[in-house]
Amino acid sequence: MIKKELEGLDVNIFYEKLDNGLNIYLVPFKNRKNYQINYFTKYGSEINEFIPYGEKQKIKVPYGVAHFLEHKMFEQESGEDPFSYFAKYGSDANASTGYKTTSYTVEGNNNIEENLDYLLDYVNSPYFTDENVEKEKGIIIEEINMYKDEPEGKLFDQSGKAVFKKHPCRVDVGGTEKSVRSINKEMLYQCYNTFYQPSNMFLVIVGNFDTDSILKVIKNNKNLNEKDSNKPIKIIKTNEPIEVNCRQKELKIRNIAIPKFILTFKTKINNYQKEELYKKKISMDIMLYALFGVSSSFREEMLNKGLMTFLYTSKYLTDDILTIEVTAESKEPKILFDKIIERFKTGVITEKDVERIKKVIIANLVYGSDRVASVMGALTSSLVYYNEPIYNEIDIIKSVTLEDVNNIKNYVNLDNYSYVVGYPKE
Amino acid sequence: MKYIKKECESFNLHMIKTDKFKTVTIELMFSNEIKKDKITITNFLSSAMCYTTKKYPTKISFANKLEDLYAARIFPTCYRLGNNYNVDINMSLLNDKYAEKGLLEQALDLLKEVVFNPNITNNKFDDDTFNVVKNDSYSQIERLKEDPRKNSILKLYENVDKDAKYALNVDGYMEDLNKIDQINLCNFYHQFINESVIDFYIVGDIDFDEIYRIVKEKFKFPANKKTNIDFFIESKHHNKKINEVCEKDHTSQAKLSIACTLENMTTYEKNYVLNLYNIILGGSADSKFFKNIREKYSLCYYVSSNANKLDNLMLITSGITKDNYKKIMILIKKEMDDMRKGNFTDEDLDKAKKYYQSILDEIDDKPHQIIASYYSMDKLGLEELETRKIKYNNVTKEEIVSLANKVFLDTAFLLGGDKK
Q1: B250 Cα to chain A: minimum distance (Å)
Q2: Using CA of residue B214, residue B220, residue B221, residue B227, what is the dihedral sign?
Q3: Are A90 and B362 within 8 A, CB to CB?
Q4: Which of A46, A70, A329, A393 is labelled catalytic?
Q5: Of A33, A142, A256, the CB nearest to B362
Q6: Host H or E run for residue B40
Q7: What is the pLDDT at residue A2?
Q8: Which tens digits make up the pLDDT trace of B372-400?
Q9: Contact B253/A146, CB-based, under 8 Å?
Q10: What is the ipTM of this complex?
Q11: Cα separations (Å) of A318 from A45, A100, A174, A189, B139?
Q12: How far is Cα of residue A189 from the mean position of the Cα atoms in its chain?
């Protein structure tokens, strides 16, 4: 095992790669009782066209397969319910699917070795039958329906369709009722065999445990170690055009109380190396904080004028496309929209702003490093985007200059936007 | 971990020393009897206090001050606990060790400004602060429309007993919001500071003597010998026949909310047996509800129960296809009947104990939970954590069955699901 420190944060990471390609990251906390395990594959709803393991022809699968697979991994040939197993030790199991990953998690504060062994067993031994696949459809469709009734969910869904022309993230992670109904056992196995190879997966454990005995459990797990792996994965990338699909869309949403919108800027981005990409990300965070953050003159002015009740920014990176989203609630969405564009164009960021915000970002890293769940979240996100942890985050943050921030600001294509607004239905 | 409670003139200071965290967490708690016409203004005031102060009178200056203190956070939370309405002013900051010496004292200075020097001039709250918080409150109240699940629960409680404390909407009321002005908000501030029961909690790697000295010197509330009124709401006698109410709404999924009354339970039952009963019935992913209604019959994505000993109620919620309503009600009744008949295994009980044990074991990992645990001991008569662990472990199947016979279905409310 290789031991490395997250510099300046008093956190040690132990790393090992198994022969079958599985990447293991262990982060022991001395003074906590709980632990979290995250066993995840780099496979989410973003991928829906690929050449299946052992086959020659590419296939296109229905929307929502990754998520469906997540539900069905809990099915076992023995009939035992994993939730029941984990409950024996008072532990909690869960799973989630995103655009880029599918995660299987266990949280608890005792019997970590048994729990881990069990988790590795059931995620590495799929058991799908026509009957159990059919049965799951009712549950998943109720899950999709649940989100449908949330106005922000509806807005988010429409925004994805306005920004992207072809990319699978146009559609909700869960898919649609129609696509879910079309999913069958064979598709699940094709996706499983391709993307659940240990070489495409990560095992991250954070919290209260002993690294040596945990590693032993992993190395002795039969289901994991006997699995085929290290086969190359061929994903057909969507050739997503850079132009947004639709510049402006007005929706009437039945149960929305106050108008809300998502404004997305879509920009092409180069393929940066790990630390460079991280630096770009931090520069972007600083820019967004300076322009729209809690201490910005923009926010104060808009609030004082009654032009908004909330506003937050987010980013999404897929292949060579970067999107920046501004989500806001406003009684006067069109006015706020104009002000945001103007702010991007004319807002001035100073050296002092950059230094102040860097201090905030570093302090937030320290806060995060104190919680098992945030360490898990941050580490997982690094693995997804950079394939490994960033050990010198604080140094990189300190190295960001005003020029870096302004470069990023000037780089965003402000004319290539999509504005999706939801008004209450009369 | 060490705990000390010190009586200050008008409040209690609770200090918990531990070196587990890189942060210091403070909760300054104000508690009052809940009254419908005071909810909205209480929410409003707590937001206004944490938005600007006399010394940091604009949003920017206040936010910059927090940034200066190494991204310290300060925010209010308002919530009902039985008959009482609590406001917590929460603050968290880095340990001096991870920032700079004297940070804690500077942070307490800022907290003092928030509490004692709000942005008031000539008995009026500042214009901008008032208007921003008013817009925010308006939006918060309006947003109830966007949340069918919450809406369904609120309407359920109105149908259980429209005059009960649990039927109050803690997001506030539009008619009350419209009555708030800069002057009556200022008057309410004084009333709030004078009349609330106040508790000051602090958790972190602290020095007891130093904190006691600083807090005593900086936080001088008006002398006040008030104590909390009883937190527990008297239990309701259940309807002879379940009251079933259905309201149409153009949504894809119907939100089902069910209230069960908890009747004549002893303190021991409420503190120990009830939680275990709830975990077995519908409080975990291994519960009877989850295993049967979701996994076996595929009737929903979520279905869970949640017992509230202060309200003497248990709430069951699910999101369903409207046509399945009758089927689900039959299954829910069956699972509750099985609990009454003792149709659950020793293993079920054992797992529930482990599950709860786990929750108790992890209290020490989270500052806010440490505070909540001490608060419950101080105010709600909970026993020491170690005692609780032992007593939970000793709960018997007979005790669960006996408690199950004190839980009664009272009202079911079904909202929407009418979009085809």
Answers
A1: 8
A2: positive
A3: no
A4: A70
A5: A33
A6: helix B36-49
A7: 96
A8: 999 999 999 999 999 999 999 999 999 99
A9: yes
A10: 0.93
A11: 12, 9, 18, 25, 34
A12: 24
